[in-house]
């Protein structure tokens, strides 16, 4: 469900914030998913790992797999987009993607992208959980990443199937690492860092532009101008498709971007300024009102 939030900077009810001049949209470069058929997980090798270093503003084109996946960046921030939502994934978090869900991965910053593929027996879903515990794993989930999980992911072999076979001792080690990864995922806490996306093409274009740069425009009228629809029509579509106002929905984007900025160890005053707040205290008050947590705790500081 959308977070019912205080108005973001630039809204008539928000605290004063500096005006931002419109900026040119960021240009993405596109790459394909890297040979997933060479990393197919199996009963014998239930967890497979891929490693790829990608530059900021690179997007792995939309694709899907018949197995489950976890995306994690040990450095840099990712944005994953699925048919009904988008998720910001800093290094302190990971995203679980169920089998068959189409997804695109965008590098918000230069990223050390680690992908884990998980074997899922027919009709099952999750990191080896009991049937009664599978339901939450049948949807995308942002998970806290422990230091142990991050270290385990780095240690996983990432050679494709067309490389020389792993020697028995390395396969044995991979099985131990896989078991520990599955256990850490089962223990990981889930965090809401996603924003809902609509199906209407005009509204989705607007929403994706806000996610890419939430402070580019100040008002709904400015954002709506690029869609060819009136602000009133856009406001109605937000209510119909997302059960939210534009202000409430944009606040979720602001919070997700704040987490991404905090992942770079930026202090609160810099985060507040970049998101358009005229003081750290105004930004901190917004976080407390919206999510009921102190900014340091919410941002993972």
Domain count: the total is 2
- Which structural class fits the helix and strand makeup? alpha+beta
The CATH H-level superfamily of the largest domain is Jelly Rolls
Provide the residue-averaged pLDDT: 86
Strand count: 12
The ordered H/E elements are EEEEEEEEEEHHEEHHHHHHH
Instruction: Calculate the terminal CA-CA distance, rounded to whole Å.
Output: 25 Å
Which stretches of 5+ consecutive residues score pLDDT under 50?
1-23
Roughly how much helix do the residues carry, as a percent range?
A: 25-40%
Largest pleated sheet: 6 strands, mixed
What is the correct CATH architecture of the largest domain?
Sandwich
Protein topology:
Elements: E1 29-31, E2 47-54, E3 58-63, E4 68-73, E5 78-82, E6 85-89, E7 93-97, E8 103-107, E9 111-118, E10 141-144, H1 147-155, H2 168-187, E11 190-191, E12 194-196, H3 201-212, H4 220-225, H5 231-242, H6 246-263, H7 268-274, H8 280-291, H9 295-298
Parallel strand pairs: 1-3
Antiparallel strand pairs: 2-9, 3-8, 4-7, 4-9, 5-6, 5-8, 6-12, 7-10, 10-11
Helix pairs in contact: 1-2, 7-8
